[in-house]
Amino acid sequence: MTGEKRGVNAKWAGPVPVALEPTxxxxxxxxxxxxxxxxxxxxxxxxxxxxxxxxxxxxxxxxNTNWARGGxxxxxxxxxxxxxxxxxxxxxxxxxxxxxxxxxxxxxxxxRVRELVEWGVRFHRENGDxxxxxxxxxxxxxxxxxxxxxxxxIERALLAAVEAHPxxxxxxxxxxxxxxxxxxxxxxxxxxxxxxxxxxxxxRVRIPAPLVFLATGGGGQVYRHTTNPTIATGDGVAMAYRAxxxxxxxxxxQFHPTALYPxxxxxxxxxxxxxxxxxxxxxxxxxxxxxxxxxxxxxxxRDVVARAIHHELQRSGDTHVxxxxxxxxxxxxxxxxxxxxxxxxxxxxxxxxxxxxxxxxAHYLCGGVVTDEDGRTNLxxxxxxxxxxxxxxxxANRLASNSLLEAVVFSNRAARAVLTxxxxxxxxxxxxxxxxxVQVPQEPVNRAEQVRVAHVRSRLRSIMWEDVGIxxxxxxxxxxxxxxxxLTEVEEGRWPHLPWSVEGVELRNLxxxxxxxxxxxxxxxxxRGLHFNVDHPERDxxxxxxxxFLEPAPHSLSAF
Length: 560
Ligand code: SIN
Fold this sequence. Notes:
By secondary structure, the chain is α+β, with helices and mostly antiparallel strands. Helices cover 33% and strands 17% of the residues. A 5-stranded mixed beta sheet has the order 1-23-14-19-21, covered by helices on one side. It has a 5-stranded parallel beta sheet with strand order 9-3-2-13-20, with helices on one face. A hairpin with a 2-residue loop joins strand 5 and strand 6. The structure holds succinic acid (SIN).
């Protein structure tokens, strides 16, 4: 896990075409890793012509998507258009968005939202039209939503469509451990499938595939406090990096300003949409937190609001700030934000009695596996989309509710690229998927080892929270780098001798991702977007106006 750096501003050589030449695994299904919005929409599209196997490490509905509350941004309103959405996205991204990719996002977004409706997603409507909410950094109402449980509704509809599809098979409780990579065409490297742990049958499996689509979501679990579910362990980014894929911009971790306090694991997210409806942040003494701090007030972009809360907690010694929802009536809150109301009730909080106690929590990974405009990575046969990918649309700070949009737009583009690839030959089997992995015996995992792994995971999350959080320093980053390296070295020594367990594999990925985040953060010696370093408080447009690429560190998978 050395992760030698190539350095900030280094240029990416560009993707290698998918080039699906016939291989030994002719007839194997296209493999999709992850059952969130990116994986399922890609599966539905490519299944028009090819058999697809979707694997997920937990049950089919366990995905980051399911936890997404706010909604999906699209310039659909009468006073809106893609140009305004483009401008807001570029502004949030603080100089690092790839304009050409954002143009694809905002132009293709509205059609993708309509397609979700065709797949059965029931978005909130008013007088027959999609009802549009507002969130931080958006100059218009453009958030299409289903209450404040949008992700759950999208996941429900997509799973129903996938389950009804004769060419898609979903296998649950199958944890992909590593990508299998071998020689490709034109001197390149090619992904040829995966090795995985079949948790329920207790066996290791090798799954050959002509094409692997990585849609594993994010890695918020590297932090002590996160809105991400416990499955969000950065598996896709970590395994792709180990296999030789290029990653970028991993220093840009978005902290959501309003997680319910006290935080649980995962933290309960109070949607930014409440602030879109007029809720405001207050200090415990009742004064307005964001007044004078930003022209957008409580609706400033997330990096600004999360930092303001962080500074307030440092200054005052308070444990939280308050979200004042008194601009809404209880009836409106119940109708519009049933999730927030239920979350508060579960903790005995009445939002109308002094406000909702909130703190920031790690929320979203803006960087990831580098892809081109059609999801291709630098490894032949490996595509990626969703939070695991770096398409270039988020820059240094993701605009609220652009993530589900990015997932559908770029999954759709990836699927189209696969379906129109003239080299695609091996995925033309008959409907009905045959899944016959090679099995390797797997030792049972002992309880003491599970406890030890849980302990290391907990230590890692504290290290990342304390030194690689909302506000960073050179000294803190150096300390975190050292501590992550020490933990990693111990685990690397043990890894080959241990039976595989979900906990062990996740820890390996969390360590890998932490290393990548810390390394990227140490390379960027400026403050920009989500990356704020007190020792380099200024933005440095000269030296740091490009992405932070890390050199791939492929390792041998001969042990498998
Ligand atoms: C929220 O509802 O505040 C979260 C939406 C997002 O992360 O884009």
